[in-house]
Amino acid sequence: MIRWAWLGLLLPVAALAGVRDDYARQWPLELAQPDAGAYRVVLDEQVYRAVQSGDLRDLQVVDADGNPVATAMQGAGQRVEAAVPDVELPWFALPPDGVDAGGSAGDLSVAVERDAAGRITRIRNAVAVPRDGAAAATRDPAWLVDLGEQPGQVRALVLAWGEHTPPLDLGYRLEGSHDLRDWQLLDRHVRLLDLVNGGHRIERNRIELDTDLRYLRLIPLQPSGAPALQALRGELAPRATDSEWRWIELDGAPAPDGEGIVYAVQGRFPVERIDVRMPGNAAVTWTLDSRDADDAPRGEAQARWQLRAADWTTWRTVDAGSVTSSPPLALGAAVNDREWRLRGDASAAGATGPRLALGYRPGTVVFLAQGRAPYALLAGSARAARSDAPLAPMLATLRRAHGDQWQPAAATLGAGSVLAGEAALVPAPMPRDWKTWLLWGLLVGGALMVTALAVNLLRNRPAA
Question: Per the UniProt record, which residue ranges are transmembrane (predicted)?
Answer without folding.
Answer: 437-458
